[in-house]
Design a protein that fits this description.
With 879 residues, this protein is an alpha+beta fold. The chain has 26 helices and 25 strands. The strands form seven sheets. Strands 18-19-25-21-22 form a five-stranded antiparallel β-sheet, with no helix packed on it. Strands 5-6-16-15 form a four-stranded mixed β-sheet. Strands 7-12-9-10 form a four-stranded antiparallel β-sheet, with no helix packed on it. The longest helix is centred in the first third of the chain and has 28 residues. This is Membrane protein YfhO. It comes from Alicyclobacillus macrosporangiidus.
Length: 879
């Protein structure tokens, strides 16, 4: 593939010794000024680092800051960040792939307060992205002006601006230019990873050492950092970019495919994956049993980029904000983005940079293979971003890999990246054809803006969303005509306008993430109450949020408070099917109400004025009676109500538990417009032993009155009344124990336990022994159990198959319990008697990943040291 400029533009080689050092110094000095300008403009584009406000908008407070505060908690307590006991009733923390527990730059959160560390982290990654993009564009065009233009366009792009709310996505994306630069360097390096003495001639005495080793190390290292940063979707996008780029390169070279260089890239990628194995192996394991195992097409295509949203590439403030004087609101968002999640649809590199990119694509498409590759990738990713509005939606929903990720609009990240590179190539060489096409594209942009204003969605946007970019387009056309013959003035003038336009729109929009006081900075009154009253001797006692409160989503993890809630992360499928306490409590309330007791929920926090359970003052929640024997021929028991239950929507009504000796069976009753409900006895149920009948209300609201209980024979007819009951059952009211103007804390009227012994895995059943916590850490638990009969120790935490258990030092299986709630709880089988039960969370995939990553790191260090210690070519020539 042809280079953008001939080889004479390369920096010259320098002799060994002091001359070599002087050469390196001179080479970097030539870039120092350009990089300094890029860094300063990047800092201007994101002024949040200098603000006294905190970064706390949306997901920053809901997920990212709390998880990084929790990350610091793990390391400060000397524990591996493997299991998160503070969200989702217990969840794999490292495997979830969101918090970057092993990501080295996240060490900032161990050294500084979360609010300050967030700003420093974003500033660091902005500079990382800018530097990497500078290197990537420079490697193509050998022009500092072009490299700086591309770096500024990418760093200030809409994808980065919008996804400030997604810390891990921002962090991961900042490494993409480095990966692209290293992969391109390996592909272009004439001696990629060659070693003299293995059938390859030694380099000539005056030639610098091949950079293949350096490119391979950067590619492997930055890919590993991207994986560790914690957003698998960005890693997938990077693999998509590399795949498309290398395929297009193979097509371009046709008969002379550089197999050795492609192999060097593949080897470097594999080495990077080995380095990152401790992260991606547990994540891959979790995906296999997570809520992403079989996602619906509608879920995957949610967040597709509507055609109207592409107007933001021309008018970044079409949704309001910025210099329009109109704040962003639903009335400005819906006509453009068709959604209130505007950060997912924010794209663009600045209208002048976009004109440069398209001009480069048009004028150099036939002569530059590099431009053809970047243009093709931009077009493919644009169609992917359209999602359900495009024609590749089948790929997004059915092709493995693609079908793991939602919100197709995020493919804008690759569009912004490739357009920024093209903009840099356009700025590098502003000859007459490019100048002419810049003016043409600005005229086209003006026409599109005018059409959208008169007959399209810009008609609903603020006036300045049209006038400002339209005036800029007109000014560029005039500027191109007036200075058509003054190459130097036109080139630097257009570069300056493009840079200021990109940086200006970023500086106006990027502060949307700032809030005066973030929830993770100061605990609310409800949080302070929970911190003071959750029992310290119960490691699994937790709270839950119903509605928007200060512990909703992952916000409780910032303090940390164990919660049943969690937010936007990989979780086991059974939690998602039976609890799903993120946006709403609707799923949870389709389960029996005792699920709160099963999860050891002591308090529920609601917005002020709401009530978690509509209980009945003075109501009984359960009824128990012993039946002396089972009549001959009886196959079941009938519960007859005095009238149909007040709630008849198919939701849980009650549970009926039958116990005879060591046998226990539970049936779950759901409410329907009927007065009779039946439960069936197992065929081998003891006929002569007394049977204990326990009926417990499982309704979240309403009541029902039991008239009597009757045995049912094989014919299906009810025998004479066995037991008159005449009891009204319903939920007991929760008591408000704390209240302020924002929220209320309600106390559970029951007395839930963190663990219990049972012979029935269906739910919270009468105990057949005791269980006491002896030692607890996030990844390890020890319990002292006294079991009256053989059964299970059930723990009030979400089941995960990677827990390992032992009873008195002997391995024991960990099983799913709480079958009445979808099998969401954790259980260990325990024989009769007193026992010590130990549970440890250490996934095999993490141990394997540590071994692979450690071995790869050691091999990499040896490889690099070997390369450094080898005699240099000139020394070998003298020898």
């Amino acid at each position: 593939m042809a280079r953008w400029y001939p080889d004479r533009h390369h920096l010259p080689s320098h002799p060994a010794g002091e001359g070599r050092f002087a050469g390196h110094l001179n080479r970097w000095a030539r870039h120092a000024a350009a990089l300094a300008v890029v860094w300063v403009l990047a800092m201007v584009a994101y002024p949040s680092w200098a603000s006294s406000d905190a970064m706390g908008y949306d997901d920053l407070s809901r997920l990212n800051a709390p998880q990084r505060a929790l990350l610091a908690w793990f390391y400060h307590h000397g524990q591996w960040p493997l299991w998160n006991p503070f969200s989702f009733g217990g969840q794999p923390f490292l495997a979830a792939g969101q918090s970057g527990p092993l990501y080295l730059p996240n060490a900032l959160f161990l050294l500084a307060p979360v609010a300050l560390a967030m700003k420093l982290s974003y500033l660091f990654h902005e500079l990382v992205a800018a530097t990497g993009m500078y290197l990537f564009v420079w490697s193509i065009c050998n022009s500092r002006r072009g490299a700086a233009a591309g770096a500024i366009a990418f760093t200030a792009s809409g994808f980065f601006i919008g996804h400030q709310v997604h810390t891990q996505m921002f962090d991961a994306m900042s490494w993409l230019p480095w990966i692209a630069w290293a992969a391109r360097g390996l592909l272009r390096s004439p001696e990629a990873l060659r070693s003299p003495g293995h059938g390859h001639p030694a380099p000539s005495a005056g030639r610098r050492k091949s950079p293949g080793r350096r490119y391979a190390g950067v590619l492997a290292g930055t890919l590993a950092l991207m994986v560790y940063a914690g957003h698998p979707q960005v890693t997938f996008y990077t693999f998509l970019y590399l795949t498309l780029y290398l395929l297009l390169c193979a097509v371009e070279t046709r008969r002379s495919v550089p197999w050795r260089r492609l192999g060097a890239i593949a080897g470097s990628v594999a080495f990077g994956l080995l380095l990152a194995a401790p992260q991606w192996l547990p994540t891959a394991d979790l995906v296999a049993y997570s809520d992403r195992q079989h996602p619906a097409a509608g879920f995957l295509l949610e967040g597709s980029m509507p055609p109207s949203a592409w107007l933001q590439f021309l008018s970044p403030f079409a949704i309001g904000g910025g210099d329009t004087g109109v704040p962003i609101s639903l009335s400005t968002l819906l006509p453009i983005d068709h959604s209130n999640l505007f950060w997912e649809f924010t794209g663009g590199i600045g209208i002048v940079a976009l004109a440069l990119a398209l001009a480069a694509a048009v004028t150099r498409f036939r002569t530059s293979a590099e431009v053809r590759c970047l243009t093709a990738i931009a077009l493919v990713c644009s169609v992917f971003a359209l999602g359900s509005y495009g024609f590749l939606d089948v790929v997004l929903t059915r092709v493995p890999g693609f079908d793991l990720f939602r919100i197709p609009a995020r493919y804008i990240g690759l569009v912004d990246f490739t357009l920024s590179a093209l903009a840099g190539l356009g700025a590098a060489r502003l000859d007459a054809p490019i100048r002419r096409w810049v003016a043409v594209w600005c005229a086209v942009f003006f026409a599109v803006l005018a059409t959208a204003r008169l007959w399209g969605p810009l008609g609903h946007a603020p006036r300045a969303a049209f006038t400002h970019p339209a005036a800029l387009c007109a000014a560029i056309v005039v500027f191109s005509v007036v200075f058509a013959q003054r190459d130097r003035l036109y080139g630097w003038g257009l570069w300056g306008v493009a840079a200021l336009t990109s940086v200006g729109q970023a500086a106006l929009l990027s502060p949307f993430v700032l809030v005066a006081q973030a929830p993770y900075q100061t605990p609310s009154g409800a949080v302070q109450y929970l911190q003071a009253h959750l029992p310290k001797d119960d490691p699994l006692a937790r709270a839950a949020a119903f509605g928007e409160t200060s512990i909703s989503y992952d916000q409780a993890a910032a303090y940390p408070i164990p919660a049943l809630n969690g937010y936007d992360s990989l979780v086991p499928a059974w939690y998602d099917q039976s609890v799903a306490l993120t946006w709403t409590d609707a799923v949870l309330k389709t389960e029996p109400a005792s699920i709160l007791d099963a999860y050891d929920v002591r308090y529920v926090v609601t917005p002020a004025g709401d009530e978690p359970v509509f209980g009945l003052p003075g109501a009984e929640t359960s009824y128990t009676h012993w039946l002396p024997s089972v009549p001959r021929g009886a196959i079941g028991l009938q519960m007859h109500l005095e009238a149909p239950a007040s709630v008849m929507d198919g939701r849980p009504l009650c549970s009926i538990t039958l116990t005879a000796g060591t046998r226990t069976v539970t049936h779950w009753i759901y409410s329907y417009p009927t007065e009779d409900y039946y439960v069936t006895l197992p065929a081998d149920w003891p006929q002569d032993a007394a049977t204990r009948v326990t009926i417990r209300s499982e309704a979240w609201s309403g009541s029902f009155t039991i008239a009597d209980l009757r045995w049912v024979d094989a014919s299906g007819s009810a025998a004479h009344t066995v037991l008159p009951v005449h009891r009204t059952l319903g939920p007991r009211p929760w008591r408000a124990v704390y209240q302020d103007s924002r929220e209320t804390v309600w106390e559970n009227p029951d007395s839930p336990r963190p663990a219990w012994m049972t012979t029935d895995l269906s739910g919270v059943q009468p105990a057949s022994g005791t269980a006491q916590s002896v030692r607890w850490t996030a990844n390890q638990q020890e319990w002292r159990v006294d079991a009256e009969t053989g059964g299970w120790l059930v723990l009030a935490q979400t089941y995960d198959p990677n827990w390992r258990a032992s009873v008195d030092g002997q391995p024991a299986p960990v099983e799913a319990a709480g079958t009445g709630y979808g099998g969401v709880l954790t259980a260990v089988r325990v024989p009769q008697g007193s026992h010590d039960v130990r549970l440890v969370y250490r996934p095999v995939t993490f141990s394997l990943g540590l071994c692979l990553g450690g071995a790869a790191l050691l091999a990499g260090v040896v490889w690099m040291l070997w390369g450094i210690s080898r005699p240099r070519p000139r020394a070998r020539a003298r020898g």
